[in-house]
Design goal:
By secondary structure, the protein is mainly α. It has one domain (4-117). The chain has helices at 13-16, 42-56, 72-89, 95-117. Helix 2 packs antiparallel against helix 3, helix 2 packs parallel to helix 4 and helix 3 (72-89) packs antiparallel against helix 4 (95-117). The longest helix has 23 residues, at 95-117.
């Protein structure tokens, strides 16, 4: 029912890389290449905040193999922003958009609770 490509569960390594860093293929950053950004979408907007929350929860890869820093305050901030989007868009989303947002919020909230219990 839910498309994993919008959920953040399975993300290609290239998508996680900073777009300003050179790609392995061309030596150019995404900003220097002729690649076009994807069209704007609600799912992309949700993913932006979701990925920021994942990073704040220490669930995103860190350069140079360093241990990720967990910042629960920032994780909560991004999760709350997604909650605000949910509240303000209630009744105005397609089923797919609502499902994507609900999925991200559930997963992030569960990760937040788990990470909070470790501290």
């Amino acid at each position: 029912m839910h498309d994993e490509s919008t959920s953040g569960d399975t993300t290609d390594r290239k998508e996680q890389r900073n777009p300003a860093t050179p790609s392995e293929d061309s030596g150019k950053s995404h900003f220097e290449s002729s690649e076009q950004p994807p069209p704007p979408s609600f799912e992309s907007l949700v993913s932006i905040f979701g990925i920021q929350a994942l990073a704040a929860l220490g669930k995103a890869p860190v350069a140079d193999g360093k241990s990720p820093t967990v910042r629960l305050d920032f994780a909560k901030h991004y999760i709350d922003l997604l909650g605000l989007i949910e509240e303000k868009t209630k009744g105005n989303l397609t089923n797919d958009e609502a499902s994507t947002l609900t999925y991200w919020l559930y997963q992030l909230r569960m990760m937040f609770v788990t990470e909070s219990g470790k501290r």
